[in-house]
Amino acid sequence: MVIRPAFNDTIHAAIRLRICGLLRHLDEIDFAVLRDTLGTSDATLSKNLRVLVDAGYISMTKAASPTRSDARRLTWVRQTPAGRHAFDGHIEELRRIAVGFSDVSADPERRTPDFSA
C-alpha cells in the first residue's frame, strides 16, 4: 500500500499523536499501561481515545483480567488499519514539511525542493 502524505488534524493533537505512535508498534495495549506510559489522567486519556474511536482510528475492547479473581475488566486499545494508514500518512507529511521537499524519498538524489510555498 502506498502511503500518501496527508496532514491529519485529528492525529496531530499532542496526546493523540503519542497514542498513535505507541500503538503503531503494538498489537494492543491495556488502558492503564497506556495511561501510565503517557503520564496522563484517566479522563484525559479517555477523552482523546474517544476522538480516535469516533474517527475510526482505534478500537477498544473490554476483557476479564486473567490475574484478578474479581469482576474487574481490562480495557484494551488497538489501532485499526485505517488508523495505521492515517498515522503513516501524517508522519510522511510531517517529514515532507520538516525536510522542505515535495518528494521525501530514501534516495537523496530523488528529492526535489518545493519552492511553491
Plain-language structure description:
By secondary structure, this protein is α+β, with helices and mostly antiparallel strands. Helix content is 46%, strand content 14%. The protein has five helices and three strands. It has helices spanning 9-12, 14-23, 31-38, 42-54, 81-99, and strands at 29-30, 58-64, 73-79. It has a three-stranded antiparallel beta sheet. A hairpin with an 8-residue loop joins strand 2 (58-64) and strand 3 (73-79).
What share of residues is helical? 40-55%
The number of distinct β-strands equals 3
- Our estimate of the beta-strand percent is 5-15%
Radius of gyration: 17 Å
Distance between the termini: 28 Å
The SSE string, one letter per element, is: HHEHHEEH
How would you write the strand order of the largest sheet?
A: 1-3-2
Low-confidence stretches: 108-115
Mean pLDDT: 86
- Class by SSE composition: alpha+beta
> Shape, please?
elongated
Strand count, sense and barrel status of the largest sheet are: 3 strands, antiparallel
Count of separate DSSP helical elements: 5
